[in-house]
Amino acid sequence: DPFTHKVLGYDEVDMSKVIGELGYHTERVTEPSEVVLALKRAFSANQAGMPAYIEFICSQFPVYGGWVGK
């Protein structure tokens, strides 16, 4: 949401680290070339009985619709 982004940037909160502390296999993907390998590792973790979480950073700055700020 716009307020959260103003307070905390995407680089200040790494949800993959937070969720990793719960025992999940986690990864933070920042480049499109990393997506396929991250998914393969997540599926391998699932097959081993471990839940997986992948955080995809799609844009440095969020893009909001025209309704924001009106």
Helix content: 25-40%
Order of helices and strands: HHEHE
Task: Output mean pLDDT.
Answer: 81
Low-pLDDT parts are: none
Neighbour order of strands in the largest sheet: 1-2
What is the first-to-last residue Cα distance?
Answer: 14 Å
The best one-word shape is flat
Q: Using only CA atoms, what is the Rg?
A: 15 Å
Total strand segments: 2
Question: Can you count the helices?
Answer: 3
Count of spatially separate domains? 1
Strand content: 5-15%
Largest sheet: 2 strands, parallel
Structural class by SSE content: alpha+beta
Task: Characterize the structure shown.
With 70 residues, this protein is α+β, with helices and mostly antiparallel strands. It has one domain (2-56). The chain has helices spanning 2-7, 15-20, 35-47, and strands spanning 25-29, 52-56. It has a two-stranded parallel sheet with strand order 1-2. Helix 3 (35-47) links the parallel strand 1 and strand 2. It is flat. The two termini are 14 Å apart.
